[in-house]
Amino acid sequence: MTKKKFFFFTNDVETTSIRNHCLSDKTGEKVLKEGMPILLDLYNKYNVKSTFFFTGYIAEKFPEIVKMILSEEHEVGCHGYTHFADSAFDVLSYKQQVDHLKKSKDILEQISGQEVISFRAPALRVNKNTALALAETGFKIDSSVAPQRGDIFFSFGALKKLNWINASRKCYFARKNNLSRKGDSKILEVPINSYLIPYIGTFMRISPIITKILRRLVDFETKLSNHIPVFIIHPNEFIEEDLDLTKFSKRAKNVISYLIADKLRYKLKLRNLGIDAISLFEDQIKFFYNRNYKFITLKEFYNIMVINGGEKNETNGS
């Protein structure tokens, strides 16, 4: 009997303005009115069920942005409360992480009427306390680790992401003090795809040609080992914004970080924004749709795994 091939299309929903390199309520409004409808139309066209990781801030500011996914049976996930760099989970204490998680989880559950069990850290920044904080606040799933991702030095919190290099590529239950290692915690880690180059929306826009190669590697790995691919997209990648230099923010604290993570990364992320990103992303969905993948939420997979008695140390969805 042919084994099912699962795929996770996941979405980080926040008020980040890619064009203006800042957090902006105006961007949040455009995500609500433009980005999310485009994304939901694509998912409806290809019968994609997806997990949306919302910051508590955007949910609180625009509750409809959460409500609009409910009728399509997508999952409401948590992306922390805010995307500010000084509130990244790798710089927060255990208590601060618990407070952030409780606050954002409560907001999302009150709006959606659903239990929220899935989490992704803003900028994928976590530390040794994050797994414990997630367990303390009732989360069951994390998707913040990107094994073998080679562009970490273009991102913030790079040094703390070095342990991604030899992290497992398949889903696993994490250690209580390290989400990138297998262990005996109750937090299921769902790793994000990378082959040194990450298979995500940002790189899809930066280099569509290389991304076509990456997706074939994803398909090959899935056939070879029953791997479950994870793709990240942001609805703010589909919107058009005017440049406003008065809002542009510098996040780096030293010259090297400023040149690499702020300036160079910013310029690369501007490629194929807006309408061009829509066709590029639809092309990714069609590729896996035509190969009979089933697009499910992280919560749905967790329930399947638990019901089927999935392996404690590692599960591949078989």
Characterization of the model:
Strands 1, 4, 5, 13 and 14 form a five-stranded parallel sheet that branches. Helix 4 (94-112) packs across helix 5 (130-136) and helix 7 (208-225) packs parallel to helix 9. This protein has ten helices and 14 strands. The protein is globular and about 45 Å long. The model is unreliable at 311-318 (pLDDT under 50). With 318 residues, it is an alpha/beta fold. It has a single domain (6-307), classed as TIM Barrel (Alpha-Beta Barrel), CATH 3.20.20.370.
What share of the residues does DSSP label as strand, in percent? 5-15%
Mean pLDDT: 88
Main β-sheet description? 5 strands, parallel
What's the helix count? 10
Number of domains: 1
- Beta-strand segment tally: 14
- CATH superfamily label: Glycoside hydrolase/deacetylase
Give the CATH level 1 class.
Answer: Alpha Beta
Structural class: alpha/beta
As residue ranges, the low-confidence spans are 311-318
Rg measurement, Å: 18 Å
CATH architecture: Alpha-Beta Barrel
Compressed to H and E, one letter per element, the order equals EEEHEHHEHEHEEEEEEHHEHHEH
Task: Write the CATH fold name.
Answer: TIM Barrel
- The percent range for helix content is 25-40%
Q: Write down the overall geometry.
A: globular
End-to-end span in angstroms?
Answer: 11 Å
